Structure to design on (187 residues):
């Protein structure tokens, strides 16, 4: 077991049936799991539901958990698979989401916005970036999210995606080039 990975120690306790250790894992990682999923799928409500699925999967997989790598690497593998499954589900069952409601003009009011024009421009920019990331192939999308937003190392990303470090570098390069092309003119 990796000595500095307190999460792995918690997961070993979960494996032994310790419910408080599982609650602690959820508290420690809930925000990052939701944020990662939200960045990948662009729907905050759905991200929370999928995060619950991730933690249910972690709990059900506790018996098979082996502390051979960082817990977060193992967790992000489950996050990646959950996101990939969600994309497959969406491709089979197209449904209207809040994002499509946003595109038709409905948008909840943001009481915190000081300058409506700036807020609208920022919102549009974020939506374009989110859409561009969402259009990337699954492996590139996951690599970008884990590298840029979650600060994962190439080695950790390689483990999550079950590929080599050079393959991760290639995925990131192709993703960045695609994003540059899609977002050209925004800056």
């Amino acid at each position: 077991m990796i000595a500095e990975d307190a999460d792995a120690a918690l997961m070993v306790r979960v494996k032994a049936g310790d419910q408080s250790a599982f609650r602690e894992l959820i508290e420690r990682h809930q925000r990052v799991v939701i944020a990662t999923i939200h960045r990948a799928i662009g729907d905050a409500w759905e991200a929370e539901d999928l995060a619950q699925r991730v933690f249910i999967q972690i709990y059900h997989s506790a018996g098979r958990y082996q502390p051979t790598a960082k817990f977060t690497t193992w967790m992000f593998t489950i996050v990646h698979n959950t996101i990939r499954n969600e994309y497959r589900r969406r491709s089979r069952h197209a449904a209207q989401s809040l994002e499509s409601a946003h595109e038709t003009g409905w948008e909840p009011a943001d009481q915190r916005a000081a300058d409506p024009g700036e807020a609208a421009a920022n919102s549009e920019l974020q939506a374009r970036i989110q859409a561009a990331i969402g259009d990337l192939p699954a492996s590139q999308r996951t690599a970008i999210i884990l590298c840029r937003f979650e600060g994962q190392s190439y080695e950790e990303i390689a483990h999550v995606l079950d590929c080599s470090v050079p393959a991760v570098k290639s995925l990131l390069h192709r993703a960045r080039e695609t994003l540059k092309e899609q977002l050209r003119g925004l800056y």
